[in-house]
From TrEMBL:
It comes from the Bacteria. GO terms for molecular function: DNA binding; DNA-binding transcription factor activity. Residues 8-143 form the HTH marR-type domain. It holds the Pfam family MarR. Keywords: DNA-binding, Transcription, Transcription regulation. Gene3D superfamilies: Winged helix-like DNA-binding domain superfamily/Winged helix DNA-binding domain. PROSITE patterns: HTH_MARR_1 (PS01117), HTH_MARR_2 (PS50995). This is MarR family transcriptional regulator. The keyword Transcription applies. The keyword Cytoplasm does not apply. InterPro entries: HTH_MarR-typ, Tscrpt_reg_MarR-type_CS, WH-like_DNA-bd_sf, WH_DNA-bd_sf.
Amino acid sequence: MSNNQFRRGELYFVITGVANTALARRLQRHFRDNGIELTVEQWSVLVHLWKQDNVSQQELCHKTYRDKPSITRLLDNLEKMGLVERKGTPDDRRINRICLTDLARDLRDRTMALANLTLLEGLEGVPPEDIEVTRRVLTKVYENLNLVVAGN
């Protein structure tokens, strides 16, 4: 059997999906336990905005791998919470720029600390060399699939 074929029980996308879900659930619990009323999905949008603020809604769709209706719903809720503002652009009123509020900026360090704690809990007992191999493999899988998507 070639190295690229699946053996029964080795569905890696299922394993990574289950691990991702477990990490998200733990992070959600940490948020709740620390009085942070934010879903992991909302937080993931904020993470992208903390990296680059004042981006278009379309750019945010692309960066977060979400479709337009999903981003719209998330941004609606983040706006109601006072964490983001939509600002029209003078050149094209159809384009909304998404900007962080001070309240969102104040959440950054607290939520990132909880995310780091969650990751440390998940990686407990995993040797650093295994973490590095996993990072390289998943990065390569992403690059391979991203090239396929970009080529279509």
